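Q: Got a minute? One more chain.
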Amino acid sequence: MRWFSIVLLLILAIVPPVAFITGHAFWMDLFTRLVVLAIAAVALNLILGYGGLVSFGHAAYLGLGAYAVGIPVYHATYGGFDSIASYNGFVHLGIAIAVSAVYALVTGAISLRTRGVNFIMITMAFGQMIFYAIVSLETYGGDDGLTIDVRSEFPGINLDNPLALYGLCYGSLVLVLYLVYRISNSRFGLTLQGARSNEERMRAIGVDCYRYRLTAYVISGVICGYAGFLLGNFTTFISPEMMDWTRSGEIMFMVILGGATYLCGPVIGALVFILLEHLLSEITVYWHLPFGLLLIASVLFLRGGLAGALSNPPWFRKDRSSALASDTSTAASGTATKAPTRADDDV
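A: Always. Here it is, folded:
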């Protein structure tokens, strides 16, 4: 699986720039969106795959990160709210991270006191609260959305250049994957996984599972907010629709389809999701139906999602199970034949 992940990242590094240079700019846009959503899916996987927390409100962080770009640019262009009005990308990034962290801390502190379906519903409720709050802000377009006239400005980086924007998004994906890898293999990450597997036992040895989960929740929200920052610069148009609960479902779909608990599982899920969405939407407007059937099939037949199937193919599991069964039956028959001999020796 490690080699497949490396090959996948190399493909994402090479194919889109080559497509853009050869005159196929559409594929550059498609892969830029793919990489941004992959970052959001990796962020969700930190709490879903490693922490066992099913959040249905992570699209809110995408929206908060995107509006952290749109609102300062709006005021820098049309006046008002001088304290945040700016084209500076570092200001936008700082606002996105700060707002996402505070929102994650407040909502996580409340949501994590619940479990199971209640946790799912309360995260979705918080997400919808942000959705309707943005809809009510007529200054920023309300339900119609807001156009970002100027992308974030960084020294030495022109985000109006598709290659530069994709390079930033791809580099961010690699860094986020490395960060999640280090977290998941650290003492913190192992404790988080232990709380997912057996919370009562972790509490019995003195571990405060709530604190670990809240920390992971905030980290996940900040990363997803950063993905929203990139998404706002990519689309140059933001609306409350991008933070609806259905978007949260799509991000969760990517994680489950690709394989939770696998580092590159969300990236695989995002790749398959975006490509199938594009291909199926050209065939029928009802592309959600085959997507739903695909999710059902992946849950039923692909243990661990696509990443799990690639690392441990079904036919390999079948052959290995047959081999183990054969070895077990052989050992059992050998024991059965030896038993009378020992009995005869004792007589």
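A: The CA atoms of residues 173 and 237 lie 22 Å apart.
Q: Perfect, thanks.
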